[in-house]
């Protein structure tokens, strides 16, 4: 901290109680000057030799009946006046960043200029400010803080503007050139950490991150902070990411953690002003440089304290531009009346719609047109948003107030190709079906129509096959496509293992014969596998339920009956049989053989048909 000493005489000012100060001297005091609630008993000569204002005031007072001179609205109060009075007496006084602004404003009030006396107080203070205080980082911030209580004097004297310009200029300095002290208690930014770990710089470069200045200016009041940030942005040298970090640090410093403190009548106006100011200071890149989680948390607070609509609209648009970086937990924003849901579904719906609209309007729209209008998955952001929407649907699916229409609308907001896998969507639908037991058949059908069973993984397929909440038709589709997928995989492996390795010429000559031979071998192999499985199934019946690894035993009764039906249909098609072969004794499914039934295959088939229907 910089300081300057003025004068050399010992301090002769003394007190009488709390409201009287006087200059101890052999000569009697001849003037009373009142500043605020304090009276100063002083001598005219030293004061009038330095102050033009006091000359005017004293000249209007009769010498025969000296009265009390009132200094109304004196900047800095009694303490600032005492500094000026001591300077007039030549008493030692120390100026520092905490009192220099008050002293400067008081000297201006008293008109202590060079016209009255050379080397007067105004000149000395200006030299101290320009040569020492404003060249120091922390001193500039202290002076700026103290200037707020001295408005409009400090503003008119351009002390505020000079401090702001000094602070903004220092933030733009190359970190390697910084020699002054600063406060830094946060983690290094990612880019700075990479530089520190990956390359060898000088010690000075390693010790000074790009955002070194953020914490120190967090101590400023919101009005001054806004002016400093605007000055920093106007210089055009600061990265948007650092600006975003600065706004985040300021919000964390001043916004209370509890909801009650946010909305309390005492602080709600201050909190509203703070949030609206931070929003207006967001980087000019439409919030791209700010973390999405920070913007969403800011939006939560803005909704809670009922910030103005324009501020919330700016946040919503900025968030939609980088929705692919959002977390599901950050999107769980409580709903406000008149909404009946727990979370604000309409807000998330709007965010998704704006994201899709923005992505579709980008340059890759030309690529879509070239491909016949089909959607082109040009960026991973689509996949991320698809997962985010599915995760959000799963999180809000338990809300009893959430309607089927709202659920479906949000699910259909993202393009189909943003969901190459439907496991997340299936999980959300499953939760919704379990928590909303009163759905009609039509509503259940609409919900399940969101899923494409062909895009379910094996684990999701096995779960869906045993899910009693799903409609029967969906379970049939799941089992059918799983059987088709398994058959296709088996067929591909058989072709790789059994296909003869021939040259292209020999293959062309013997292809018809080889196809017949291969088909015959495959039929024989399938018959052999069916016999072995039937024998194993018979052993399972004899041994009871000791072997728990059978996939057929794992299926519930309804799914097993459907699987029996699909087994017979697939077997009949594979062996080239007609529909009437379903009733033959050799067409029994593994489930029928496990049960060990001795009835005719025809009656067994009828029983299964009755159960499915």
UniProtKB/TrEMBL annotation:
Residues 211-485 form the NPH3 domain. Residues 526-555, 573-613 are annotated as: Disordered. Keywords: Ubl conjugation pathway. Pathway: Protein modification; protein ubiquitination. Pfam families: BTB, NPH3. Residues 577-599 have a biased composition (Polar residues). Residues 29-97 form the BTB domain. InterPro entries: BTB/POZ_dom, NPH3/RPT2-like, NPH3_dom, SKP1/BTB/POZ_sf. Belongs to the NPH3 family. This is BTB/POZ domain-containing protein NPY1-like.
């Amino acid at each position: 901290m910089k300081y300057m000493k003025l004068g050399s005489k010992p301090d002769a000012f003394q007190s009488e109680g709390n409201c009287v100060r006087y200059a101890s001297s052999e000569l009697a005091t001849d003037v009373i000057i009142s500043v605020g609630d304090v009276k100063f008993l002083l001598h005219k000569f030293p004061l009038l030799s330095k102050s033009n204002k006091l000359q005017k005031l004293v000249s209007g007072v009769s010498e025969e009946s000296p009265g009390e001179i009132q200094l109304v609205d004196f900047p800095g109060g009694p303490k600032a006046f005492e500094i000026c009075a001591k300077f007039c007496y030549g008493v030692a006084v120390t100026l520092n960043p905490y009192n220099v602004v008050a002293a400067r404003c008081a000297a201006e009030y008293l008109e202590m200029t060079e016209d009255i006396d050379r080397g007067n107080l105004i000149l000395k203070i200006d030299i101290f400010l320009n040569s020492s205080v404003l060249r120091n980082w922390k001193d500039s911030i202290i002076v700026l803080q103290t200037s707020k209580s001295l408005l409009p004097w400090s503003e008119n004297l351009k002390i505020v503007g000079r401090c702001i310009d000094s602070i903004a200029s220092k933030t733009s300095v190359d970190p390697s050139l910084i020699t002054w002290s600063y406060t830094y208690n946060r983690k290094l930014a990612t880019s700075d950490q990479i530089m520190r770990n990956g390359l060898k710089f000088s010690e000075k470069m390693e010790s000074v991150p790009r955002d070194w200045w953020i914490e120190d200016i967090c101590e400023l009041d919101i009005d001054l902070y806004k002016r400093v940030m605007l000055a920093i942005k106007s210089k055009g040298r600061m990265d948007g990411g650092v600006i975003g970090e600065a706004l985040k640090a300021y919000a964390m410093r001043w916004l209370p953690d509890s909801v009650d403190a946010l909305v309390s009548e005492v602080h709600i106006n201050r909190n509203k002003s703070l949030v609206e100011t931070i929003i207006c200071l967001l980087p000019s890149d439409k919030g791209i440089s700010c973390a999405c989680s920070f913007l969403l948390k800011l939006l939560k607070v803005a909704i809670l304290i009922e910030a103005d609509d324009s501020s919330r609209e700016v946040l919503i648009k900025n968030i939609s531009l980088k929705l692919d970086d959002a977390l599901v937990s950050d999107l769980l924003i409580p709903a406000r009346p008149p909404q009946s849901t727990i979370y604000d579904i309409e807000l998330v719906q709007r965010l998704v719609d704006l994201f899709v609209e923005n992505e579709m309007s980008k340059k890759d729209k030309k690529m879509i047109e070239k491909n016949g209008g089909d959607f082109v998955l040009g960026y991973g952001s689509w996949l991320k948003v698809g997962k985010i929407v599915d995760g959000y649907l799963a999180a809000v699916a338990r809300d009893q107030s959430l309607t089927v229409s709202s659920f479906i609308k949000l699910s259909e907001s993202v393009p189909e190709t943003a969901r190459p896998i439907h496991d997340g969507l299936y999980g959300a639908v499953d939760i919704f079906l379990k928590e909303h037991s009163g759905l009609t058949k039509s509503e259940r059908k609409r919900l399940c129509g969101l899923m494409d069973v062909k895009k379910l993984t094996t684990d999701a397929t096995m779960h869906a096959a045993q899910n009693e909440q799903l409609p029967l038709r969906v379970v049939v589709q799941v089992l059918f496509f799983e059987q088709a997928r398994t058959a296709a995989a088996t067929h591909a492996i058989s072709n790789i293992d059994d296909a003869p390795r021939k040259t292209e010429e020999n293959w062309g000559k013997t292809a018809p014969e080889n196809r017949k031979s291969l088909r015959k071998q495959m039929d024989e192999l399938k018959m052999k596998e069916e016999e072995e499985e039937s024998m194993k199934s018979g052993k399972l019946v004899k041994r009871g339920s000791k072997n728990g690894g059978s996939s057929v035993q794992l299926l519930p009764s309804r799914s097993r009956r459907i699987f029996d039906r699909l087994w017979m249909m697939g077997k009949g098609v594979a062996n080239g049989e007609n529909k009437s072969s379903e009733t033959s004794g050799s067409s029994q499914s593994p489930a029928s053989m496990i049960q060990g039934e001795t009835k005719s295959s025809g009656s067994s088939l009828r029983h299964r048909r009755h159960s499915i229907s």
